[in-house]
Automatic annotation (TrEMBL):
<keyword id="KW-0999">Mitochondrion inner membrane</keyword>
<dbReference type="Pfam" id="PF00361">
    <property type="entry name" value="Proton_antipo_M"/>
</dbReference>
<dbReference type="InterPro" id="IPR003917">
    <property type="entry name" value="NADH_UbQ_OxRdtase_chain2"/>
</dbReference>
<comment type="function">
    <text>Core subunit of the mitochondrial membrane respiratory chain NADH dehydrogenase (Complex I) that is believed to belong to the minimal assembly required for catalysis. Complex I functions in the transfer of electrons from NADH to the respiratory chain. The immediate electron acceptor for the enzyme is believed to be ubiquinone.</text>
</comment>
<feature type="transmembrane region" description="Helical">
    <location>
        <begin position="173"/>
        <end position="191"/>
    </location>
</feature>
<feature type="transmembrane region" description="Helical">
    <location>
        <begin position="197"/>
        <end position="217"/>
    </location>
</feature>
<keyword id="KW-0812">Transmembrane</keyword>
<keyword id="KW-0679">Respiratory chain</keyword>
<feature type="transmembrane region" description="Helical">
    <location>
        <begin position="147"/>
        <end position="166"/>
    </location>
</feature>
<keyword id="KW-0496">Mitochondrion</keyword>
<dbReference type="InterPro" id="IPR050175">
    <property type="entry name" value="Complex_I_Subunit_2"/>
</dbReference>
<dbReference type="GO" id="GO:0008137">
    <property type="term" value="F:NADH dehydrogenase (ubiquinone) activity"/>
</dbReference>
<feature type="transmembrane region" description="Helical">
    <location>
        <begin position="313"/>
        <end position="334"/>
    </location>
</feature>
<protein>
    <recommendedName>
        <fullName>NADH-ubiquinone oxidoreductase chain 2</fullName>
        <ecNumber>7.1.1.2</ecNumber>
    </recommendedName>
</protein>
<feature type="domain" description="NADH:quinone oxidoreductase/Mrp antiporter transmembrane">
    <location>
        <begin position="24"/>
        <end position="284"/>
    </location>
</feature>
<feature type="transmembrane region" description="Helical">
    <location>
        <begin position="238"/>
        <end position="260"/>
    </location>
</feature>
<keyword id="KW-0520">NAD</keyword>
Amino acid sequence: MTNLSYKFMFLLFLMLGTLITISANSWFMAWLGLEINMMSFIPLLTHFSTLSAESTLKYFLMQTISSIVLLSSCTMILLLSSMQMLNNYFPLKILIECSMLMKLGAAPFHLWVIHIINGMSWINTIILLTWQKIAPLSLLFTMKNSYFVWMISMLSAMIGAIGGLNQLSLKKLMAFSSISHMGWMLCSLMISKSLLYFYFISYSLISTSIILILNIMSMYHLNQIFTFFKNKTIYKMMYSIMMFSYSGLPPLLGFIQKWLILNSLMLNSNLLISLILIFSSLITMIFYIRMTYSMILLSFFMVKWYHVMSFKLPLNISILLIFSISLSPIIIFLPF
């Protein structure tokens, strides 16, 4: 009971830090909210093991470095402006954007996400890949229309797609998927706030449901998917559709969010960015299909570490929920 109470307390402070950053009217208050958020998330990472201790330390160092860059850049802008010596904000603006991109784990600042995610639980992975992106994205939105962010978005989409091709760890696959989706989110951020809201909410719903299922079934490697769905045909189909929606296969929800971004980019004649995003989405579809290939097409074999799992109510609810969310575009556009 004590363990649950202190986790609940830190979760409240985690949300409070994000809300302070979103509602801040100065960079100091935004920095303060980011620090509260970071110091509340660190105790949740601790599991008294070697991997968790290493992940906690790496997360603390990266977040501290990005916070120092943010605070130093804002202080320089304030001092130079007061002395009327600042003629161009662009270099300092780039530093502020770099600090936010480091917190988001966007390429080329993505390596820390790949390194620490192995020492985290699935629940902490959900928080890292979804909630922890809200505050930096809200601050980046105030500095949009920057060519630097456009370049980072294309780089993140391609690195996230290529990096996931040779991974067998499901956590690393989800991390590279998050980096690839970050490229799409940065593009939606540069277009409109409503598009960013829609993409982030749909991405969070799908990724959270996938990770919850992996957590309930205690799956951490690609070959475990092959065995844990023995004689569960309906669950195989639901999980496959869920992964296809995550990859952006039409006409599922993941395709709708990407199609809206591509439509806006094409209307604004951003052909190069659209082409790069399309190629990255096709590459990511390769390892998403690989996650379902052996489960559906290959015959089952018994291995030594296999154990029979019972599909309990929370798992059924999670699968049905994501299945209905993934099929929602089909239901909407059906002719009546």
